[in-house]
Amino acid sequence: MGVVELKSVTKNYQGNRGITDVTFTINEGEVFGFIGPNGAGKSTTIRTLLNFIHPTSGSATIFGKDIVKESKEIKKLVGYLPSEVHYYDDMKAIDLLKYSAGLHNYHNDKRIHELANKLQLDLNKKIEDLSFGNRKKVGIIQALLHEPKLLILDEPTGGLDPLMQNIFFDLLKEENKKGVTIFFSSHILSEVQKLCDRVAIIKEGELIKVEKVETLTQNNIKKVSLLLTKEANLGLNMEGILSKEKNGDDYQLLFNGEISSLLTMLAPLEVKDILIEEPTLDEIFMHYYK
Amino acid sequence: MIFKRELKKNSKSLIIWLIILSALTILLLSVYPQFAQDREAVEQLLSAYPETFMEALGMDRLDIGSVIGFYGLQVYLYITLFGGIYVAMLASNIVAKEENEKTIEFLLSKPVTRSQIIGGKLLAVITNIMIFNLILGVVSIIGFQFTDEAIPWSTFSVLIFGAILLHVSFAAISFLLSAAMRKTRTITSLSLGIVLFSYFINVISAIAEDLSSLKYLSFYYYIDAAAIIDEGAIPIIYIVIMLCVTAGCIGLSYVTYNKKNIAV
Fold first, then answer.
1. How many CB pairs under 8 A join A and B?
2. Which keywords appear in this protein's UniProt record, sorted alphabetically (chain A) (predicted)?
């Protein structure tokens, strides 16, 4: 049995992009990525799982408990970090964390200070005086504090500097080693690749596929922008070219394969300028996961 | 947890309201002995006022020459009117504020049910109303010490009971709006509107004979000081109406909040 199981979950609601017929399972101890462009339905899925919003149809369980009927029981076992953290302005960081611990009936205050030390957070500042990144740290601590068995993280790295991201990822790996399952939503492919075992890809409210991260990394897709000196008839029929677009002397290719064979192909051409880069998620989705 | 948190969060505004209204109560009641002494002069002065003015304030029916009549005209008016405003502001904010400031995402991710959230907040509102009326009741009793006149205690307790009933009813309506809607500013305006409109209707219906049947729309009419001092009681039917409105609003608050999609 999976830790999280969604069966044909659909949610339509006014003003927001819903999700349609989403089905997937997260196994115990897994770090499961959830990736898609902004507005694809990631947050809607998470909010449905946490019963902030009610599913229109379909059902889902977390630890075998129904997300609507047994939401309270589920939340004892879950730590949630929203993409934007908003807390009570009148509280200091320590007050908020103690309030959170109290709601969980969790009494190990030592853990607050341990986590704050690791993340270098001053607990005695008022939350409204904290910077965006520091507020996020408060969010991370309240999600981890009560030692949950499942972490649901919605775009957790926003606002954290790269150094802090590494510390945060180490924290997550540590928790994962203890057996904590992690559901990690993001629109940044590279951070999902760093951390996750499997990823679900969502676009426009529909689940496109669930794939092992290794498979994604094997698809070593590059975006190649070329500027040629003169009308060269670019054959470009070699294997691995997923798409090509021509705009005057400008060419844009999506290439999936050996970089060296790409270079061999390009060598005889009169190339004025070249840019080889990571494609954006949208581009991958558009050309690859149709 | 939620109850404790709300009590603490709202304590500051409760204290400020109580300080101002207590001071006002003491001030007004301290004036009474002089007022009673120069009774004839005062009555003469009052007779110069237009009749409608007297009717609007219920002065035609209240004997302001007795301490309880004076209390009913002056202090009770402030306690019920400002108290209504206070509870409307308190109750209209208490649920929707979490959504407005997006803190509800935090609260809902914790192991609490929505009914527990509503319950904790409702209890906090009711506790605040009780403290509000208890303190002002005690302050009034202190204020009565300025005069040697005997106080009709049973009438006084009915007045306090009426004020509590009124506050709880307005709070329940505002609380329902707070649970069902999202924008605190709209909810607060609406709640204050209901309180002031209700007060206004009571005044209008007292002045204009044609509109006198409108008075049944106003909670202020139900707990009218002049009637309570005359009868020594609030008609059962009014109590039942207010309790039904309260129970209905509270019930609906639970139902709508449990069904609500909360996406911030």
1. 63
2. ATP-binding, Nucleotide-binding, Transport
Q: How many domains does chain A have?
A: 2
Q: How many residues does chain A have?
A: 290
Separation between Cα atoms, residue B167 and residue B133, nearest integer Å: 9
Q: ipTM of the assembly?
A: 0.86
Q: Which of A161, A188, A217 is the last residue of a domain?
A: A217
Output the domain CATH number for residue A281.
3.30.70.250
Same domain flag for A190 and A237: no
Q: Global pTM?
A: 0.87
Do residues A145 and A256 share a domain?
A: no
8 Å CB contact between A251 and A225: yes
DSSP E strands in A141-218: the ranges are 150-154, 181-186, 198-203, 206-212
Instruction: For an interface test with A, give the residue of B101, B106, B116 to mutate (most A CBs within 10 A).
Output: B106
For B263, the closest of A53, A105, A142 (CB atoms) is A53
Q: For residue B18, name the pLDDT band (cuts at 50, 70, 90).
A: very high
**Residue B39 CB: number of other CB atoms within 10 A?**
12
Are residues A200 and A245 both part of a single domain?
no
Q: Which residues of B touch A144 (CB under 8 A)?
A: none
Is the pLDDT at B167 greater than 80, yes or no? yes
CA B83 to chain CA centroid, Å, is 4
User: Do B140 and B80 meet the contact criterion of CB atoms below 8 Å apart?
Assistant: no
Q: Is B51 helix (H, G, I), strand (E, B) or coil?
A: helix
Interface residue B102 vs chain A (CB under 8 A): yes
Q: Domain boundary at A217, A240, A274, which? A: A217
CATH at residue A83: 3.40.50.300
Residues of A206-220 as b/e, b for ≥16 C-beta within 10 angstroms?
ebbebbebeebeeee
CA of B174 to nearest chain A CA: how many angstroms apart? 22
Q: Which residues of B touch A85 (CB under 8 A)?
A: 106
Q: What DSSP character marks residue A278?
A: P
Q: Which of A52, A107, A149 is most worth mutating to test chain B (most B CB atoms within 10 A of its CB)?
A: A52
Helix (H, G, I), strand (E, B) or coil at A171: helix
Question: pLDDT for B88-127, tens place per residue?
Answer: 999 999 999 999 999 999 999 999 999 999 999 999 999 9
Q: Do A102 and B102 touch (CB under 8 A)?
A: no
